[in-house]
Write a structure and sequence with these properties.
With about 220 residues, the protein is α/β, with parallel strands linked by helices. It has helices at about 10-25, 35-45, 65-75, 90-95, 110-120, 130-140, 155-165, 170-180, 185-195, 200-210, and strands at about 5-10, 30-35, 50-55, 80-85, 100-105. The longest helix is centred in the C-terminal third of the chain and has 15 residues, at about 185-195. It starts with a strand and ends in an 8-residue tail after the last helix. The mean pLDDT is about 85.
């Protein structure tokens, strides 16, 4: 079965370009488009695409609000947001709303296709290091936890330690080296962290680590 995609952008030329790029790759099918977030929410509910490729700055309903509504509807669609700037505060809002990552609009076509395949497979496409840099800049002035730290009580001491390393932008291999564990064991711990906290991927884990105060900007 092909990976189905809903393209959302307020610029018609951008939508056309994305459809042409994606349409040239086997295994990916663009099944719809939308020019604003309100239409995106409706179309996502109707079409139930695997991936919603979402612009974050749009009229009527912005991409952050649309992302929250689509993810909250729980019909299986995963959101991959696109933005012009890697330090865009809207990108952070989209991650908090449940997006599985974000890409810059000047991303090469082959990287875009690879990202869509990765998100469809359940992975995040923003490296933890990039997400950490974004959070460091945009949450630097938030000293009080945004999320109740008690949610982390569900984790064991080792799982909290693994979460700290995830938030520091370390890969499974790097965490394994730091904690003197096998990479397979680390992968198991990461999976348990995501399951216990109800998170989709590592990006959401990094965001939650910041929002609970487990880690601090620059820490």
């Amino acid at each position: 079965m092909p990976i189905t995609v809903l393209v959302v952008d307020d610029q018609e030329l951008m939508r056309m370009g994305l459809k042409m790029v994606l349409g040239a790759h086997p295994g990916i099918e663009v099944i719809g488009e939308a020019a604003n977030g309100a239409v995106a929410v409706t179309r996502a509910a109707e079409l139930r695409p695997d991936i919603v490729l979402m612009d974050v700055r749009m009229p009527v309903v912005d991409g952050v609000t649309a992302t929250a509504r689509i993810v909250g509807a729980e019909h299986g669609s995963r959101v991959l947001v696109m933005t012009t700037f890697d330090m865009d505060e809207h990108a952070l809002g989209a991650l908090r709303a449940g997006a599985s990552g974000f890409l810059l609009k000047d991303t090469p076509p082959e990287d875009l296709v690879s990202a869509i395949r990765s998100v469809a497979a359940g992975d995040a496409v923003v490296s933890p290091k990039v997400t950490k840099r974004l959070l460091d800049r945009l949450i630097a002035e938030d000293r009080a936890p945004i999320h109740d730290p008690e949610v982390l009580d569900a984790l064991t001491a080792r799982e909290r330690e693994v979460l700290e390393h995830i938030a520091a932008g370390r890969s499974n291999a790097e965490i394994a080296e730091q904690l003197y564990l096998s990479e397979a064991t680390v992968k198991t711990h990461v999976g348990r962290v995501l399951t216990k906290l109800g998170l989709r991927d590592r990006v959401q884990a990094v965001v939650l680590a910041y929002e609970t105060g487990l880690v601090r900007p620059g820490g």
